[in-house]
Specification:
The chain is α+β, with helices and mostly antiparallel strands and 884 residues long. It is built from 26 helices and 42 strands. It has an eleven-stranded mixed β-sheet. The longest helix is centred in the N-terminal third of the chain and has 22 residues.
């Protein structure tokens, strides 16, 4: 074997397996004093090295398929060798393969699917080579891992092999060729293993995803974001930070161009919990009340148009709940790394559905769920005037008769009857007593007597009561004669004759009938939106009757009523408890009695009142009970979606039947805020009141009347024109621009930035505003002023001479995600390559292309938690573009 010159003298081995040491470096090349070579590892100094060669490959690959391996965070060196094959050699090789496949198929006589597929692939590649569309390459992939000890090296090897298996790669150690493998991954350009696989041009190109170059930026300026790097997959990361100083460029103007309708959205059928019940995303309108992640009611301040044709995914959580969202919907999650690093106070991050899908599992041997959404807090709602006490209703729903106000209670759980009596309800003596349980009637009669009544209110006198002779089974139950007469009349189709005895209805029976619960057990909506204490009392009644708790503290509610089980799960979610419903088969003495539904959960809340059950409740719960983990993100056919905006600083609202916190829209005001914090004077023309909250947070001045002069000392001035009438909006915009120009032209020279949002209002049918905007574009540079133009449609810019001036006189162009319909015009105007056009069409939320002078780079806008809290976006009402 021929080795590189610097290591040629290291092959002389001693008896103990150590290569000869003490030889000085050759030609000044640094080399270790000695090498210890074992069958599967090499030791140089204090570091062990092991090389893995890829010997098995997937049949088909897609663009960027090697990215998880290239972004491996451990200590590893990866070498990828490409050797082109001459076309004549490739043709001879394919000809032999095709002949061998044909012979094999003809000889066997039986169709072999594997051979047929291989033969078809060989035919396709041969034709593409003959047409000059492709060529063949010999590709070799090697991974060298390093660690301080052999044990640590074995652990790293296991993790990398697991990762390779997930990519359908078969990684094997270079046994007895450990030194050659290590040398193959050093930056010497020599492949000493020669373990190759044939790739065509497309498959080889798919190993390298699209990536633009790193932008150098400026030593001063503001942070625009991070470069998008193909070698990083963490949700909050990217490439190097990009700083841009607009005042260091030939002119100080910037154009931000984004497509409309680029918001984050949920399917129209997604249920949203409200203080009064439920609505769907499609039904939500401005002014509706929904709930935020703290369980508090918040107001919907805006809704987007229904969007179609979006890429949609179904997000699946570990408790079985699902939500359908588009690829750019925002979620606030905590990753596995964050939970391990700061177990006591994990750091949440805001990611899109597409980013969650790309990193749904951790890249380690455990492959655990990476993203977790905190369980919402208990709903904070006022008490409701409820007709029946929640605990009593829970007991009746659990072990009550479906058509009378009667409950069956075990003798050992007589505490339930004591609790009901303590609530002020009369409990009649049991008329049906079994060895282990008794049946009690509950309620107060309206005459103040102590008479017992049947379930429908007939007095139980001797004349009205029928007691059959004791049967062989020991049945001693009493029957009500008026009720029997009514039932007999119904069966025979006769008119019901009113009973001669006075009917005295019971209070509990009336309320159960009024709530439509008789023969229809469920939890009424009013009880699911009561106060926290009322909802907990209802849950205690349900769990005291149909609930159990194991020795380890695992709670379970079991019932054969699916509707009731689902409502119990909703009740638990409203109390901030993570629960899951599991379906099984109910059996009695081995006989199948139909389906049963188990609601399982673990909590420290006192969900029981029975002392024997309370004693088993745990004092603490595992961390997994405080989160819902994303276990899968599945592509689904595109469905209509839309988004809402809520008036909460966190931008979170509850969605889905499990009340999962999710994000509302979010826009890019970060660049303006950072410039203001750097000391620049900011003048904003805001037709839609987008920048009002940001201006107030920066201590600026908000002006509603454009004829009003701002204060001289104000460093942030926002002309908020959202309250102007539609017919006078153009005039108001012109007046605001005039005031801005007067301050720029007549005021002292200082670093200023003018932000003009919704530029289409000035580019079309507004001559006065167009002239003032043209003056700012052409003359602001002499006054150390930079103009920022924000618009959604390139047609607005290119259709006028003023728009062309904007493009030609802007040193900074920030292009966010574009639609397929608009990308051709954008690509022609800015000279984008095919790869850059594809990137803009599929760009995730908050990513785009930054063009500064002659440089360009893919960029991800990053914001801090404070900036995030000041930004609100909606594509149909207050959206500058994509959230940045």
């Amino acid at each position: 074997m021929s080795l590189p010159k610097p290591f040629a003298g290291l092959l002389g081995k001693s008896g103990n397996g150590r290569a000869g040491g003490g030889r000085p470096p050759i030609d000044g090349f640094p080399a270790p004093d000695a090498l210890e070579i074992t069958p599967r590892a090499v030791r140089a100094g204090d570091t062990w090295f092991r090389t893995l060669a890829i010997v098995g490959w997937p049949r088909e690959v897609s663009a960027g398929w090697l990215q998880p391996l290239l972004s491996w965070r451990g200590a590893a060196d990866i070498a990828l060798y490409f050797d082109p094959m001459p076309n004549d050699a490739a043709a001879r090789h394919l000809q032999k393969q095709r002949a061998r496949f044909s012979s094999s198929l003809a000889k066997n006589g039986i169709s072999d699917p594997m051979t047929e597929v291989a033969a078809n692939d060989a035919d396709d590649i041969a034709r593409s080579i003959a047409r000059g569309e492709s060529r063949l390459f010999r590709l070799g992939l090697y991974i060298t891992l390093r660690a301080e000890t052999l044990e640590a090296l074995d652990a790293e090897t296991y993790k990398v092999k697991a990762l390779c298996s997930s990519l359908l790669l078969d990684a094997r150690p270079t046994t007895y060729r450990a030194l050659e493998g290590w040398l193959s991954t050093l930056p010497l350009g020599g492949d000493h293993i020669r373990m190759r696989r044939t790739f065509d041009t497309k498959a080889g190109a798919d190993c390298f995803p699209f990536a633009t170059g790193e932008m150098v930026g400026h030593p001063s300026g503001i942070l625009f974001g991070r470069g998008v790097s193909r070698t990083r997959t963490d949700v909050g990361g990217g490439g190097s930070p990009v700083f841009v100083d607009r005042f260091a460029l030939p002119n100080h103007n910037m154009l931000i161009l984004a497509s409309s309708g680029a918001g984050k959205a949920l399917a129209l059928e997604t249920p949203l919990p409200t203080p009064d019940g439920w609505i769907t995303m499609g039904e939500a309108k401005v002014g509706d009340r929904v709930l935020n992640e703290d369980g508090c009611p918040v107001t919907v301040t805006g809704t987007s148009d229904v969007q179609v044709g979006r890429t949609c995914y179904e997000v699946v959580f570990d408790d079985g709940s699902t939500i359908v969202a588009d690829a750019d919907h925002l979620w606030t999650t905590e990753t596995a790394a964050s939970r391990r690093r700061k177990r006591r106070a994990p750091t949440p991050s805001t990611v899109t559905t597409e980013q969650i899908r790309a990193t749904v599992r951790t890249v380690n041997c455990r492959a655990e769920a990476n993203h977790a959404v905190p369980v919402c807090r208990p709903l904070d709602l006022p008490p409701q005037p409820l007709p029946l006490d929640p605990y009593l209703l829970g007991v009746w729903l659990g072990d009550g008769s479906s058509h009378t106000p009667a409950v069956t209670v075990c003798h050992e759980d007589i505490q339930i009857i004591e609790e009901i009596r303590a609530l002020g309800y009369a409990v009649q003596l049991p008329d049906q007593v079994r060895p282990t349980s008794a049946r009690y009637y509950i309620g107060r009669s309206r005459n103040r007597g102590e008479l017992s009544h049947c379930g429908k209110g007939h007095p139980r006198t001797d004349e009205n009561t029928y007691r059959p002779a004791q049967s062989k089974t020991g049945n001693t139950q009493r029957y009500c004669k008026p009720c029997m007469d009514e039932n007999t009349a119904r069966r025979r189709g006769r008119a019901i004759i009113p009973a001669l005895t006075e009917i005295v209805p019971l209070e509990v029976f009336d309320h159960l009938k009024g709530l439509r619960l008789l023969r229809n057990k469920h939890i009424p909506a009013a009880y699911l939106r009561g106060s926290r204490e009322q909802r907990l009392s209802l849950l205690q009644g349900l769990m005291d009757t149909d609930g159990t708790v194991s020795i380890r503290g695992r709670c379970e509610f079991t019932n054969t009523n699916e509707r009731l089980a689902e409502r119990v799960r909703e009740l638990l979610c409203s109390l901030g408890i993570k629960a899951a419903v599991r379906k099984g088969t109910a059996r009695l003495n081995g006989v199948d009695c139909g389906p049963k539904y188990r609601v399982v959960f673990t909590t420290t809340l006192p969900v029981f009142r029975l002392r024997r059950k309370v004693e088993r409740l745990p004092s603490a719960v595992r961390l997994t009970q405080k989160y819902r983990y994303v276990v899968d993100v599945r592509p689904v056919p595109s469905v209509p979606v839309r988004c809402i905006v809520v008036d909460t600083p966190s931008h979170l609202f509850l969605a889905g039947s499990s009340m999962i916190p999710t994000h509302n829209s979010y826009t890019a005001k970060a660049l303006t805020g950072r410039s203001a914090l750097q000391g620049d004077e900011i003048l904003i023309v805001d037709p839609d009141d987008e920048y009002v909250r940001l201006t107030k947070a920066l201590g600026g001045e908000v002006i509603r009347d454009p004829t009003q002069a701002p204060k001289e000392e104000s460093r942030v001035v926002c002309y908020a024109l959202g309250e102007s009438e539609e017919a006078r909006l153009h005039q108001a915009v012109g007046l605001a621009l005039g005031a801005v120009w007067q301050r720029v032209d007549k005021g002292p020279v200082r670093r200023r930035q003018v932000v003009v949002d919704e530029a289409y209002l000035m580019l079309r049918e507004n001559p006065e505003a167009s002239y003032l905007l043209w003056a700012l574009i052409k003359r602001s540079r002499k006054r150390l002023c930079g103009l920022t133009i924000i618009t959604q449609d390139l047609a607005d810019v290119l259709s006028t001479t003023l728009g062309e001036s904007i493009i030609n006189n802007a040193s900074i162009h920030l292009l966010l995600r574009q639609t397929e319909k608009a990308i051709d015009g954008v690509g022609s105007a800015f000279g984008l390559s095919e790869g850059e056009r594809s990137f803009l069409v599929a760009a995730p939320q908050g990513q785009g292309l930054l063009l500064v002078g002659g440089e360009r780079a893919a960029l991800k806008i990053v914001t801090s938690a404070v900036e995030h809290g000041l930004c609100v976006t909606d594509p149909s009402m207050r959206l500058v573009g994509a959230p940045t």
